[in-house]
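The freezer alarm interrupted the setup, so I double-checked each line after restarting. Inputs confirmed:
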Amino acid sequence: MQSIDLPLESSPVGAGGYAAGEGRGELAHVMPARVLVAVFAALILLTILTVAAARFDLGPANLTVALGIATVKATLVALYFMHLRYDSPFNALVFVTALVFLALFLSLTMLDAVQYQPDIRSYETAPDSGFLAH
Amino acid sequence: MISHAEPLGWHPPHLAHHFDTPRQQFAAGKLGMWIFLLTEVLFFGGLFCAYAVYRANHPEIFIYAHQFLDKPLGAINTAVLILSSLTMAWAVRCAQLSQRRGLVLCLALTLACAAVFLGIKYVEYDRKWEEGLKWAGSYAPRQVREPIPPRDPSLPAFPPDHGHGSEPRNVGIFFSIYFAMTGLHAVHILGGMGVIAWILRRAVRGDFSADYFNPVDYTALYWHLVDMIWIYLFPLLYLIH
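Predicted 3D structure, all chains:
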């Protein structure tokens, strides 16, 4: 007879401590099926595009194009498959924080990484280093 | 309507006592999952960093060695993983709509895609093994390919007296990076399969509905991150120009 929803609706803040309507209903945004299919189609098309782009010699731009397409794909996955677009912005902030620290990690390392190459080369080419015997 | 008020202490069956509302419980679990994903990004970040440093210093090795990777298989695997992300996202949708059969089907399809991915990965690893294309130290190629001349003429050509025949030196390090990155990724696929199998068992049992689908959602977040990492691995390892 009585729906189990009723107790929740009857009290603004129930004895259990939660407000009306919070016990049931949507916990999160439900992604429409056509959005899921559209995102999937876009991801497949971008995969074909990145394979096709690798066939052309674009100079150093090849890497930029490949990473650019990958980033568009990753953004689609994050926004729609992972619901970030409809989610609490705090979760997006956590994810962006990860990317910021990743960028910091990579860029600071890269600043230093090339510094030692002249030393390594001179060591490699030194006749008595034993390196050439490899 | 006070007569219908819940008895003192009543709460929805899936609401843990330390949360006020199911919504709060869901949001807290999700935030926890995102923080875990943050550590995963940085975990893989170490390998991406190794890749970046080595490629910046020795582009010739990457240009030479990527020829040995199977582009069609890599592309098929990318599509398989993207398909598994779709079925996983659809599983969350089914759970949110209390569609039990749809949820079970989507989870089973996701598991199947993951198995296909690992199967293809096995074929690739097996061929590398057969051809002697192993990590630095064990690298002993059966066949040496023609080195690709450097695109930038200012770069030094490969020293002919190094490495295996006309190969650039230290090609094995490319395969160290390849096996470490794809291997760690494959371990994540395996782990994800374990969790999805557990979720599938619970879905069959009827644990999930519009009121409670939290574990499905958190597992999906992890699965999409694993997909996302492969989205970067594929062009970085297979599509070098």
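Quick read of the result. The CA atoms of residues 103 and 109 of chain A lie 10 Å apart.
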